[in-house]
Amino acid sequence: MKKRKGRSVAGSRFAYDGLERLIHERARLCLLTSLMTHSKGLSFGELKEFCGLTDGNLNRHLQVLEDAKLVTVAKKHDHNRPQTVCRITPLGRRRYLDYLEVLEQVIVDGSQACAESDSPLRADSPLRKAASP
Amino acid sequence: MKKRKGRSVAGSRFAYDGLERLIHERARLCLLTSLMTHSKGLSFGELKEFCGLTDGNLNRHLQVLEDAKLVTVAKKHDHNRPQTVCRITPLGRRRYLDYLEVLEQVIVDGSQACAESDSPLRADSPLRKAASP
User: Fold this and answer.
1) pLDDT tens digits, B79-123
2) Three-state DSSP state, B82
3) Quick one: B35 exposed, middle or buried, by C-beta within 10 A (0-12, 13-18, 19+)?
4) SS3 content of chain A, % helix, strand, coil (to 5)
5) Which of B:28-47 have CB within 8 Å of A?
């Protein structure tokens, strides 16, 4: 049997080991998703706005992601005004996508359960199809 | 504009407020997904095996979920042997499905980004479709 990410052993069917805390933490998941969708990078101010974070929280979580080499934080000058630009690294991108694959399995599992009763998923949800027998 | 779960305000596009910590914590997400897919309930031993948790961790997270009324934990006797049976409550089911809807949005957002480059999503992934333009 091929071992799938997020399923450690056959018995631990719902362990989802691939949901690593570094990425799963909500603020960091928001930050990485923002940066994934903006490949040219985002300024500190844009990230703060997109993720609804305070300066302190944004700084703290960016530091964690930078220490793990998942993002880069560069200071530069734009018309003599200092600006901080954050980007996701190739490593960050790979790790995020590995994580996303496990998340997908959670949704497929959860949706299969709710397909057996009334499903509150959006009518246009791509997961409705996955959840159908 | 209809306000969608997980998007607090137009600016906080990636805030995903609906990823409430109570459910998002990995061990509890594993527990709830296990219980969602087993509507008749699971014993303490089965949950421990499915989620790959220690006795201590399982007890701790079940207590959090029971306090929040998302699961019930009932002691009963099976052939004179005590058994603990855990079930998800109707409230737990609703909250889990609300959460799942926000998780779905994260995957759709993340997948749209990776559709612009090489996608590592499974070839049969229902999300490939969602990620395609």
Assistant:
1) 888 889 999 999 999 999 999 999 999 999 998 877 665 545 544
2) strand
3) buried
4) 50, 15, 35
5) 29-31, 33-34, 36-37, 39
Which residue(s) pair with A74 in the sheet?
A85
Q: Minimal Cα distance from B37: which residue of A?
A: A113
Q: Residue A62 pLDDT more than 90? A: yes
ipTM over 0.85: no
Straight-line distance from the first to the last Cα atom of chain B, in angstroms, rounded to the nearest whole number: 22
State the CB neighbour count (10 A cutoff) for residue B1: 5
**CA gyration radius, chain B:** 18
Query: What one-character DSSP code corresponds to residue A68?
Result: T
Sheet holding B71-78, edge to edge: B42-43, B81-88, B71-78
Does the beta carbon of A22 lie under 8 angstroms from any beta carbon of chain B?
no
pTM score, whole prediction: 0.81
Fold of the B21-131 domain: Arc Repressor Mutant, subunit A (1.10.10)
CA-based R_g, chain A, Å: 18
